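// run 5 | inverse folding | seed 20
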């Protein structure tokens, strides 16, 4: 035996069954350690409960946590299928800085060529944001909103210090508001992008295992 510590696990958290299905289509790709794809359920309360419960498992001790799935873009010019890499997540309880955003951007450009990748703050909400509410959130400096990322990352770092990140796929935007997921072109486009992002997540995870200089 080499005596090396076991590779740190990766927990990928999403809210919806369709998001989990998209992510599981590429599970054969390899990461730097064990990978768990967790469906938390919708909303910040469900995300907090699920992530806190799962991270209590000793098998996930020290796990890096990445929140993903769909989001609403806030900035004019965003389109369904664009990607958002959070520099931090925010909700009324506070903000959580994300790790390795530059690497994620680089790997996402490689994994999903031709797609625009936006970086900036990702804000949380307890409901689906529509209409004029978008402009109010944009005025805070946020570039996108979803219901689970902020709660997921805040819960993860409350359990223990760990690397965290959030990557979301825009499913609707100010000029392309979604009526019902999966029934419009924007939803289908976002699903196809989400299906392709796991290699970028795995490269992010592998980078965390490299010795720090």
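// decoded
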């Amino acid at each position: 035996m080499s005596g090396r510590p076991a590779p740190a696990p990766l927990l990928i958290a999403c809210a919806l069954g369709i998001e989990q299905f998209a992510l599981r289509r590429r599970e054969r790709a390899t990461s730097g350690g064990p990978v768990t794809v967790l469906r938390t359920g919708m909303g910040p309360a469900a995300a907090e409960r699920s992530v806190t419960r799962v991270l209590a498992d000793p098998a996930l001790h020290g796990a890096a946590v990445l929140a993903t799935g769909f989001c609403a873009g806030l900035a004019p010019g965003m389109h369904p299928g664009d990607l958002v890499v959070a520099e931090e997540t925010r909700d009324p309880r506070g903000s959580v800085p994300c790790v390795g955003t530059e690497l994620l951007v680089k790997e996402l450009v490689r994994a999903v060529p031709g797609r625009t990748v936006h970086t900036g703050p990702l804000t949380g909400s307890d409901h689906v944001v529509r209409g004029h509410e978008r402009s109010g959130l944009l005025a805070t400096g946020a570039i996108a909103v979803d219901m689970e990322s902020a709660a997921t990352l805040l819960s993860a770092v409350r359990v223990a210090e760990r690397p965290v990140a959030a990557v979301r796929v825009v499913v609707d935007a100010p000029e392309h508001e979604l009526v019902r997921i999966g029934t419009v072109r924007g939803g289908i486009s976002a699903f196809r992008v989400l299906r392709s992002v796991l290699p970028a997540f795995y490269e992010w995870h592998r980078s965390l295992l490299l010795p720090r200089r």
